[in-house]
UniProtKB/TrEMBL annotation, chains A, B:
Gene Ontology MF terms in the entry: metallocarboxypeptidase activity; zinc ion binding
Function in brief: Broad specificity carboxypetidase that releases amino acids sequentially from the C-terminus, including neutral, aromatic, polar and basic residues.
Top class in the EC scheme: hydrolase
Annotated positions binding Zn(2+): H267, H271, E297
Enzyme Commission number(s) from the entry: 3.4.17.19
Protein name: Metal-dependent carboxypeptidase
Cofactor(s) demanded: Zn(2+)
Organism: Listeria grayi DSM 20601
Active-site residue list: E268
Cofactor comment: Binds 1 zinc ion per subunit.
Family of the protein in this entry: Belongs to the peptidase M32 family.
Keyword tags: Carboxypeptidase, Hydrolase, Metal-binding, Metalloprotease, Protease, Zinc
Length: 504, 504
């Protein structure tokens, strides 16, 4: 590497470190707003959010950034791996932002803010008509943006790529078709079963303090590092990583429903352990971040669904739960408890769905988004098509827009291409678990023990440490030796529901 | 105002708002570092502190700022009051920073960082010799800086002005002489008294939870707004205002010594109520800040010493304290309790000193600083002169450097001119209280009640609302009709100690 290139590389990395430092401050502001900030300070705090956000945007799209890209991109093969990928991510973001005329982008920002307000009003009134004009305009702008950004096979690919780099409609159409077929077949078997888990056994009251103590003991087994993170209370649980030494999770406690906090904490803990284990060499670059929404979700679901909802897990942890539940669970067998936890049923609301029906909710949204962007569906027809699809996929029909097309905020905020990540996360997790079982044959023993570090170490080795250094399908390929394969999720679901519903 | 001036004013205010927003983010980072941040994230967080601090410094000393000053200063009479003072404060800071050559300032920053490290080592080793070479160099640089900044009557005035705008050696020499004389006379009377308060009665154990509940009830009476603030735990208590809607205080609990948290919370609460009551028109400018260190301290001491250590206060609050102390204080009379709280004695350590001896600790530091800056004292002679002064002022002599000249971090960090603010705060508070008594004749009734809002409202009307819009002595003059007068503090001390030590 020439001295000049070395110098430029150092300047580029310092510039990126500055962006990351401002981003870290902004993340702290967000964490604080949702956990600790007193009500009366929030209005002025929004000025802080606006100033820091603009600054980050300005730095990512500055002439300085343009110069770094122009000078370093041609010599990028000479750069070390981390700098090269940092440059690529910066370049992608730069182009993404710069291809939209500033005036249109400003109009879009204003529009989606109005859209979210209209969405809240529409929900309140159960009337999609209130949101419709905004959503129509948002879709029109998104279509124009796709034209600016360009696309290869499908316009929707461009949107997918924002959240899940490298993901395509061609691949998703294929895996979703297989997944739907398998889930539908399994649901038919379950419908024919006369063994229904008893959900009422979970209706026990457990104090917040006891739920918290129990959940913390699980976090510790999982390997969440409390010296590099925190657990706080919020209304809407989340995980936020400021740097690998400071990754915070939150939860909400419902004394009448321990599942909310216990599974919520395991889920957010999975996200957090991912971010606590980024390799130190990524810190201060834009690679100290999840590889994609889907990979991030795969880590939370790995712990929540694959580990935390398994029989092996509850074999080990049920006695402690029985203890914190005072005597309320004493007469409930482990098997009955496990069945109740894994009960499945059709529901209208995505965020309340169980793991078997969840992918169907996602497929509906995916198909609608794809049709909207490709001008095969008009916004005004959404409520009708939405309801028809729910009937076709889940056998139930919303009674109004609020329990139908208005349930998610995403579209009114301009987020198209995001939903598939949730289902991808589940498939990634199952595929990874299949591989992990080959490499750690006694994994159920690990799950039944008090120390899951073999699992954490395996995930760190294959996933966590790379952050954004690898793309999602690259991680999957390198880890499991194949591309996305929905059969692993189907196998897992079949095995689990066979037990839960005592299928043949 | 010309259209051009109006436009420039708007641009200037927007620029200031941006500086203030970044400063608010930095304050949140500081609060978080001291209260919530997990240990392993701190190293990376220091990068955030460094980036945001540099950014604030850069904006305050930029060519843009220079242009605002150059264009607006000549027409400042046309600006509204808030903009004009905002400009003046900006200009003062700009010149303060710009008069020091950048290279020297960088060397200074490095030197004081080394100085603070050397101070910690020196304390550990009880050996001033370890700090001496750094302090010698710091003093040499400070003297050069004063030459760059310029001065009128006394070199030390320039340093005083940083913390206490408008304060001078001429004024301080006068009031400190009077104060010392009065305190010394009172101490002689006390020494001759044979009525010694019984300190042991305060040695009761009170749980953290009960101390907290008691202290919160006091904060509520004082008018601390919990929707515009928080109370958290720390090792070193502090108050930090992010904006008037978000002012946070912290405390430390010692179950064996309730005075620490109870008086600590009242003290920090006084600082916080000041910042919660800045006028809304100051928000987003550099005037939403204490008028000076001394005025800030006057507000905390007003509540801690004048209100919170008074007999009227304990008349009303002692029963509640007796209750949280279980039965341990049941046999202690209100008068004996009050006497024990206000006990005075000579001590070597400033931060452990009571209110009667505290000003003497300050005077010693003031005299040494003044002599150092004016080249009338060399650093190597400090330990000896320090010990001699303690003997002369307080009648006791440190046995080693750690309980003498090494006890405070200030000098090793380059903070000269700061100490007088502590004593000024006490004098300001007493002078304000004297005036308040004239305007609210039944103030002791207010203090004995459950609602101190007449006091808070009076302080807000005269002090809080102005933030940095007025200078310290201007606030004092406008509020009390005279300049700084130490007699009000002396009167208060005499009255209080007359009771405590049953003097004639």
């Amino acid at each position: 590497m020439s001295e000049e290139t070395a110098e430029l590389q150092a300047e580029f990395l310092a510039y990126i470190r500055k962006i990351e430092a401002v981003s870290e401050a902004l993340e702290l502001v967000f964490w604080d707003l949702r956990t600790k900030a007193p009500a009366k300070g929030m209005q002025q705090r929004s000025e802080v959010v606006s100033v820091l956000s603009s600054e980050i945007f300005d730095m990512k799209t500055s002439t300085e950034m343009a110069a770094f890209i122009a000078e370093l991109a041609p010599v990028k093969e000479q750069l070390d791996e981390v700098t090269r990928k940092t440059l690529e991510v910066s370049q992608k973001e730069y182009e993404w932002n710069k291809k939209i005329p500033a005036k249109e982008y400003a109009a879009y920002t204003k529009l989606v803010a109005q859209g979210e307000t209209a969405w809240a009003e529409a929900r309140e009134a159960k009337d999609f008509g209130i949101l419709e004009p905004y959503l129509t305009e948002i879709i029109a702008m998104k279509r124009r943006f796709v034209a600016y950004w360009g696309y290869e096979a499908d316009k929707y690919d461009t949107l997918l790529d924002q959240y899940e780099p490298g993901m395509t409609v061609a691949l998703l159409d294929d895996v979703f078709a297989k997944l739907r077929k398998g889930i539908t077949a399994l649901r038919e078997k379950i419908a024919a079963s006369d063994s229904e888990p008893n959900r009422d056994i979970l209706k026990v009251s457990i104090s917040k303090e006891k739920q918290k103590a129990f959940s913390i003991s699980i976090l510790e087994k999982m390997g969440f590092d409390f010296e590099a993170g925190r657990l706080d209370d919020t209304i809407h649980p989340f995980a936020i990583g400021m740097n690998p030494g400071d990754v915070r999770i939150t939860t909400r406690y419902d004394e009448a429903n321990f599942k909310m906090a216990v599974f919520g904490i395991i889920h957010e803990g999975g996200h957090a352990i991912y971010e606590q284990n980024f390799a130190p060499r990524l810190v201060g670059t834009n690679l100290a971040s999840g590889a994609s929404m889907g990979i991030h979700e795969s880590q939370s679901l790995f712990y929540e669904i694959i580990v935390g909802s398994s029989l092996a897990f509850w074999k080990s942890n049920y006695p402690a739960l029985q203890q914190v539940a005072d005597s309320h669970l004493d007469n409930v067998s482990l098997e009955d408890f496990y069945r109740a936890v894994n009960l499945t049923e059709s529901s209208l609301i995505r965020i309340e769905a169980d793991i078997l029906t969840y992918p169907l909710h996602i497929m509906i949204r995916y198909e609608l988004e794809k049709a909207l962007i490709n001008e095969e569906l008009e916004v005004k027809d959404l409520p009708q098509v939405w309801a028809d699809k729910y009937e076709a996929y889940l056998g139930i029909r919303p009674e109004n827009d609020t329990e139908g097309v208005l349930q998610d905020i995403h579209w009114s905020g301009g987020d198209f291409g995001y939903f598939p990540s949730y289902a991808l996360g589940l498939m990634y997790a199952a595929q990874m678990y299949h591989q992990l079982q080959k490499e750690i044959p006694n994994v159920e023993k690990v799950i039944a023990s008090d120390d899951y570090s073999p699992i954490k170490n395996w995930l760190t080795e294959h996933v966590h440490q790379y952050g954004k250094l690898k793309e999602p399908l690259e991680i999957l390929q390198d880890t499991t030796g194949e591309s996305l394969n929905p059969n692993y999720l189907l196998d897992l679901l079949e095995k689990r529901y066979q037990f839960v519903y005592q299928l043949d």
